Amino acid sequence: MNKLKKYTIMNRALALISLLFVFSFASCEDVVNLDLKTGETKLVIDAEILWKKGTDGKEQTIKISKTAPYYNGSTPKVSGAQVRVENSNGDVFTFNETEAGVYKCTNFVPVLNADYKLLVTAEGQSFTAVEKLTSATPINKIEQKIVPDFGGKDVIEVTFYYNDPADEVNFYVTDYQGPFLIYPEYEITNDEFYNGNEISTRYSHEDMKAGSTLKITHRGVSKNFFNYWKLILEASSANPFLVPPGNIRGNIVNTTDANNFAFGYFRLCEADQIEYLVK
């Protein structure tokens, strides 16, 4: 297993505002005006099919929006799109718009290791992507203890365990959510050195206290999505003034105009989700 990596997904605009806030304290007389270039507006297709263990997986959601400049207070939603997913048997699952930019399906049929194809028509452009639904091993147990953080302060550490399947290569994306977090925190894991063994993943946060509820969503993902998400997380944790390398591309292809690509990644993940009450 590679070294576990934890990331916090922050809105780059908020990161920039935080820097400006620091600058204002550094000099009360000087006004810092930053001339930020605005890139070409792109469609963003957030298409995650998430099959939580213990559910039938029928209800799924796909969101479509547009990229926006740093200083925009909101993300433009895309209405009027046609969204559907097809499986290898030719079954079609239609996603209907329930609110601006939000498309829902209530009869989806998830099948592990089956291939699915996403088809989106939006603003006169057609997009498609193909991916396989990847399985996830269940969380066996959760433990917690008190450990010192990097500064020596005692914090609560929560550890969950799962058995990695033998004789296959597996990749995982885990997110943590709680009342002490503004944004989810993510970890990416693979079984390179622990194939077929029990794997433990640790999480701590200085503001996680007894009585808090920590929601853990542990996904099985494809190798391609793992690599894509790794790039996204590394870019989001970097200098907010930098442009992500190569405008990180997902697996969604514009079949109308290949140069007018959309951001996002069509992925299908089985997941074990647990809400853990911190003691």
**Overall helicity:** 10-25%
Look at the structure and give the mean pLDDT. 86
Count the helices. How many? 2
Shape summary:
globular
The strand order across the widest sheet is: 2-3-6-5-4-7-8-16
Distance between the termini: 29 Å
Strand content: 35-45%
Number of strand segments: 16
Structural class: mainly beta
Order of helices and strands: EHEEEEEEEEEEEEEHEE
Low-pLDDT runs of 5+ residues are 1-5, 8-27, 239-244
Describe the main β-sheet briefly. 8 strands, mixed, barrel
What count of domains describes the coordinates?
1
Radius of gyration: 20 Å
Give the structure's gist in a few sentences.
With 279 residues, this protein is mostly beta strands. The chain has helices at residues 12-26, 223-236; strands spanning 5-8, 43-52, 60-66, 82-87, 92-99, 102-105, 115-122, 125-134, 139-148, 154-163, 171-177, 185-190, 198-204, 213-221, 253-254, 267-277.
How does this model look, in words?
This protein is mainly β and 279 residues long. It has one domain. 10% of the residues lie in helices and 43% in strands. The strands form two sheets. It has an eight-stranded mixed barrel. Strands 9-10-13 form a three-stranded antiparallel beta sheet, with no helix packed on it.
For this entry, give a set of tags:
279 residues; 10% helix; disordered N terminus; single chain; eight-stranded mixed β-barrel; 2 helices; mainly beta; three-stranded antiparallel β-sheet
Set out the fold topology.
Blueprint: E1 5-8, H1 12-26, E2 43-52, E3 60-66, E4 82-87, E5 92-99, E6 102-105, E7 115-122, E8 125-134, E9 139-148, E10 154-163, E11 171-177, E12 185-190, E13 198-204, E14 213-221, H2 223-236, E15 253-254, E16 267-277
Parallel strand pairs: 2-16, 8-16
Antiparallel strand pairs: 1-12, 2-3, 3-6, 4-5, 4-7, 5-6, 7-8, 8-15, 9-10, 10-13, 11-12, 11-14, 14-16
